[in-house]
Design brief:
single chain, 418 residues, alpha/beta, six-stranded parallel beta sheet, three-stranded parallel beta sheet, 15 helices
Length: 418
């Protein structure tokens, strides 16, 4: 079930009075309908007068339904790069098949595991068979910017044809990205933006997603009460943008108080330890938890072991947390996805390879809307005897996350790779 479809011709809301049509999925549940109507009404008001803002010349080339929703300036991180891409008239002069370097910043969570499973279990084999890729070479820097910079330079000097990075500091890598560009090696970032003019950024609109999660949680708990926000890795654009979106969303509810902001490093074990520590030290009643995925399975374990009521919590793809929800269907009414790992990785790789083929990338950042599923969908793939400690992460399918049809809107000569 979608919040807002990446295949825009499948679903539609009509915004009265402003004449904007956005394709989406409308839930059959009254509670979901109420929230979506409120959320879309807020967006609709903010659409008025956006023409001429935020690199209008480039954004005017993006279809209006995508531009006016996913790129809405009122729900955009002000640092998100939205200018014309330097790769618009660029094409790699390297012969096929290509080798891509994946300079990963961290390896210690379920999300990163999901990325590697997609890249090596599915993506690389099919691209090898098509004669497009030779290999994907992976390095890990354990959240050390200096190490990631060194590894990116080494990969460039060793002859990779393109670079992928993930969840990185938005500014620290900029000189290295420019260095790689000078060597004919483009850099694409998945799950968060980079501010270099030589970078390609691909992700969900994180601020919009954080705002939506906060609005959903606020409505779920009746518009009043105490909430805890659990962010990912502070200092990364994906975490910071989503965190700010949550704060903005809760700020619209005067009877809701954010009583804690806890970093969990997108790692379930850290989420569990940090939340257990906070719950032990604070007796204040908590009515809901806005948790960035991945981390919700650890947060859920901490809440359950504390003996406190199992109040609503944002879930975003960890099967261990879905296991609890699957068997307690009244816990929440939906999961909201900000970054299904395999799909996010394939999204970035497809954009990078299309750019290398010379398809004419129009804009620095390709953004997608969030995605949601209800408990009936979760129950269709999570068995009743599921494992609460599962290390698996849900992926929704590239056709639902960033389809070829959707990506074509961001290229002058857009065409599927396969």
């Amino acid at each position: 079930m979608k919040i807002f479809s990446t295949c825009w011709n499948n679903f539609a809301y009509i915004f009265q009075n402003i004449g904007i049509i956005i394709d989406t999925y409308i839930s059959k549940e009254d509670k979901t309908m109420t929230l979506l109507k409120k959320f879309i009404a807020i967006l609709a008001v903010s659409f008025v007068g956006v023409a001429g803002n935020l690199n209008a010349d480039i954004l005017d080339e993006i279809p209006a339904d995508i531009r006016d929703f996913v790129y809405n300036p009122d729900f955009m991180d002000p640092n998100q790069p939205l200018g014309e891409s330097v790769y618009r008239n660029w094409k790699s002069d390297r012969p096929l098949p290509w080798t891509i370097g994946y300079a990963s910043s961290y390896a210690g969570n379920l999300w990163r595991k999901g990325v590697m499973e997609r890249l090596y279990g599915d993506y690389l084999p099919k691209m090898k068979a098509a004669g497009i890729l030779n290999d994907i070479v992976v390095t890990q820097s354990n959240l050390k910017d200096a190490v990631q910079i060194q590894q990116m330079r080494q990969l460039t000097d060793q002859g990779v044809d393109g670079l992928i990075v993930c969840c990185s500091n938005p500014v620290a890598l900029n000189p290295t990205i420019e260095y790689a560009y000078g060597k004919g090696v483009p850099t694409a970032s998945m799950t968060g933006y980079l501010t270099s003019e030589y970078a390609i950024s691909t992700s969900v609109n994180y601020k919009l997603t954080g705002y939506y999660i906060a609005q959903w949680l606020a409505e779920t708990i009746g518009g009043e009460g105490n909430v805890v926000i659990m962010e990912g890795i502070p200092g990364t654009s994906a975490s910071d943008s989503q965190h700010q979106g949550m704060l903005d969303g809760f700020a619209e509810y005067p009877d809701i108080t954010v009583v804690a902001e806890i970093a969990h490093m997108w790692t379930p074990q850290i989420a569990q330890a940090e939340l257990q520590k906070w719950l032990s030290a604070n007796t204040i009643e908590v009515d809901g938890f806005a948790v960035q995925s991945s981390g919700e399975s650890g947060a859920l374990n901490a809440l359950e072991s504390s003996g406190r009521p199992m109040v609503p919590m944002a879930l975003g793809g960890e099967i261990g947390a879905f296991c609890y929800w699957r068997n307690n269907p009244d816990f929440i009414d939906r999961a909201v996805y900000a970054w299904p790992p395999g799909d996010d990785a394939e999204f970035a790789m497809n954009v990078l390879l299309r750019t290398m083929y010379g398809q004419g990338l129009k804009i620095q950042s390709i953004l997608v809307p969030p995605y949601e599923e209800d408990v009936e969908t979760i129950q269709s793939f999570v068995p009743e005897d599921c494992d609460r400690n599962s290390s698996e992460f849900r992926t929704v399918g590239i056709e639902n996350w960033a389809s070829d049809e959707y990506l074509n809107n961001f290229f002058d000569r857009g065409e599927a790779l396969l």
